[in-house]
Amino acid sequence: MRILIAEDDYVSRKLLFKLLSQYGECDMTVDGIETFEAFAIAHESGTPYDLLCLDIMMPKIDGLKALRAIRELENRKKVKDSKRCKVIMISALNETEIMFDSYKTEYEVYKTKPIDIDSIINAMKELKLLN
User: Fold this and answer.
1) What is the pLDDT of residues 101-110, one digit of tens each?
2) Contact at 8 Å (CB) between 26 and 20?
3) What is this structure's pTM?
């Protein structure tokens, strides 16, 4: 499994890397532009990501805008829904149902910080990325 961790907070990024590297090859980015670029390069090279753990509040462009660009890229490449990258949104924000309802079709799971390892593992199981 190929995993992209998009997180500007050093501690959260390292925690996710330590957890997720047990399940696949992990790359890390620290802002929205770098995230989109890494995603596009992976697609162009024929090695797309299976999972994207994406922080919402990141520098340059936020995670929601990066995700919208990623989904547009997948649409342009005619990626089937079943083959689209699974996305776990992560944020310290807590009013998710109101604030991000219009983006719900763009990501599969939403988790709040602090990062709960068991919650991430369970989300990966729900997404059928783990047994």
Assistant:
1) 545 557 778 7
2) yes
3) 0.89
